[in-house]
Amino acid sequence: MTDRLTIRRPDDWHVHLRDGAMLGAVARHTARQFARAIIMPNLTPPVTTIEAAKAYRARIMAAVGDSVDFTPLMTCYLTDGIDPAEIARGHAEGVFTACKLYPAHATTNSAQGVTDIRALTGVLEMLQRIGMPLLIHGEVTDKSIDIFDREAVFVERTLAPLARDYPGLKIVLEHITTAEAAAFVTEADHPIAATITPQHLLINRNALFDGGLRPHAYCLPVLKRETHRLAVRRAAVSGSPRFFLGTDSAPHVVGAKESGCGCAGIFNAPFALEAYARVFDEEGALDKFEGFASEHGARFYGLQLNEGTVTLVRADVEVPASIGSGETEVVPFLAGTNAGWRFEG
Ligand SMILES: NC(=O)N[C@@H](CC(=O)O)C(=O)O
Ligand SMILES: [Zn+2]
Ligand SMILES: [Zn+2]
User: What is the ipTM metric for this complex?
Assistant: First the structure.
């Protein structure tokens, strides 16, 4: 049994750091474990310009502090009317690493997202030309589609045609939750990859209704049935370079979760690596953990691998029931349970 795990410093390829007081409270958790992170742009208002991204990046750096070696990689929130030239300039200037496509109303702060992907032709052609990745929240927004099917239907209706029409477009299908998404990404003859969250590896939709309604297990795409969790697990531990770590850590203040209309999003940043390590350990695949956490994402994005290492030690570590107070009190993923590993830095 491996009790001590040392890997190259990892990156988080999908995280929500929020803004204001919440940013001040949560940024350090991500910066503690990860060298770099892809920062989601779904603020209010969303990050759609170079100026907004630079200002947000500066606020993140201020929240993290000088003593920590952490690089936020910024993304541009796509809207119907967004200017491809602004995005291309932002990419050339090293401000925008990728673009994020939210189908309008698919998830938290996506109201200004894209209503029709056909409106994006100019943007998609430009992304394909310059090799800038398109990150996708892959769910249809058609309310007549069962919520548990929205990802699989997106893969069929939107992603497959998109990949066909833009054969050179680099795509990251974010936070995959289904066997259909895992299969599409595995098999596509296309530069495509997927991020996978800890929650979609560790729990299934039963967790939403375990003895009562469990708002802290609610995120989007919503947890799926066990067969899908197992398919996503197989993809994560397969060693395929198309699957990599993206926590989708998405903090909401406790009152916004425990509500008549609770927000979607799970805050997993404080024990993210511990949670993933548990999965790879359970699967007997700790030898595949470094690729997933520290190599596949950087290679897909065309970035250097990080220098240095981090170490996890098998240990009993209780995840606190909540973190912070007042307007930044959040309930972490796995609250009140044993994380099973200790992050040593
Ligand atoms: N994953 C979530 O449930 N929520 C995210 C948005 C997202 O990634 O879809 C959030 O910003 O809260
Ligand atoms: Zn999303
Ligand atoms: Zn997200």
Answer: 0.99
